[in-house]
Specification:
Elements: H1 3-17, E1 19-21, H2 22-29, H3 33-45, E2 49-52, E3 55-58, H4 69-72, H5 77-88, E4 96-99, H6 103-109, E5 119-122, H7 125-134, E6 140-143, E7 147-148, E8 154-155, H8 157-164, E9 170-174, E10 177-179, E11 183-186, H9 189-201, E12 205-208, E13 220-223, E14 230-234, H10 239-248, E15 252-255
Parallel strand pairs: 4-5, 4-9, 5-6, 9-12, 12-14, 14-15
Antiparallel strand pairs: 1-3, 2-3, 7-8, 10-11, 11-13
Helix pairs in contact: 1-3, 2-3, 5-6, 8-9
Length: 265
């Protein structure tokens, strides 16, 4: 197969699923890692895909662009794991917590398997699946019903009705964007409504988001910056953003990541 033909196949896979892994492409196309990486370089230089660690994702900067869960799981993996590790220290045994849909909250869920007596409310199919794998008899998981979005969130009147009947100690919320004027946002209108319902049901709101979300604005705002009791992000956040956020959110926590300089926010 010629290079142009391979690249056409790769581009079609990206457009179909939102993201691809190098390992999957080597198996699909029966070529080496290096060949796939060179093809991704060509596509990225042409602005057709965005290279990420281990693969590539679709390019999308519009406020309504919403990559699927698989595509988002490629992005900033190391940062998300560091954020999840730090956020997990905020969870107390016996708590009732909420987790919205997202790859950072999914990473957090994977770290909560050893926390006893948790009640978890989530509108995320992926997060619920993680707790099912934990298989702890002392953990209760409530998965809301609703319509499914590209990020595997359950939204709409059924989800919101379920959430509003509950009282949570803390909700951990992943977001698409963080902006000084527009606050925390998402590209999905119905997902924004479900996220606001989760925030209203909780005594404390903890936003978990990596540094690349700074300056990004989704179609619909969820909360103002000052409505977050805690923002857990990573040390890749710039100094100017740290200073602004430290003034707006209740508490700014920076997760150290190898190669990033951690400073107090």
């Amino acid at each position: 197969m010629l290079a142009k033909q391979r690249q056409a196949v790769i581009l079609e896979e990206v457009r179909r699923s939102g993201g691809v892994r190098v390992s999957d492409l080597t198996e699909l196309l029966q070529v080496s890692d290096m060949t796939i990486r060179r093809d991704l370089d060509v596509l990225a230089e042409s602005g057709l895909v965005e290279k990420v660690h281990g693969g590539a994702t679709a390019v999308g900067e519009r406020s309504t662009f919403e990559p699927g869960f698989e595509a988002k799981s490629f992005r900033e993996r190391v940062e998300k794991e560091a954020i999840a590790e730090l956020a997990a220290t905020l969870v107390r045994p016996g708590s009732a917590i909420g987790l919205n849909a997202g790859t950072t909250t999914w990473a957090l869920a994977r770290r909560l398997g050893e926390v006893p007596n948790l009640t978890v409310v989530t509108n995320s199919i992926q997060v619920a699946g993680v707790f099912h794998q934990h298989d702890r008899g002392d953990q209760t998981v409530v998965l809301t019903g609703g319509l499914r979005t590209p990020s595997d969130a359950l939204v709409g009147p059924v989800a919101i009705g379920s959430i509003r009947s509950l009282n949570l100690d803390v909700v951990f919320m992943g977001v698409h964007g963080i902006d000084p004027r527009r606050g925390f946002s998402t590209p999905n209108l119905m997902e924004a409504e479900a996220n606001r319902a989760l925030a209203e049901a909780a005594r404390r709101v903890v936003v978990v988001a990596d540094h690349t979300k700074w300056g990004v604005i989704g179609l619909c705002s969820i909360l103002r910056l000052d409505q977050a009791d805690v923002l857990v992000t990573d040390a890749g956040l710039g100094e100017e953003a740290r200073e602004l956020l430290a003034e707006q959110v209740g508490e700014l926590l920076l997760a150290p990541v190898p190669g990033q300089a951690a400073e107090a926010g």
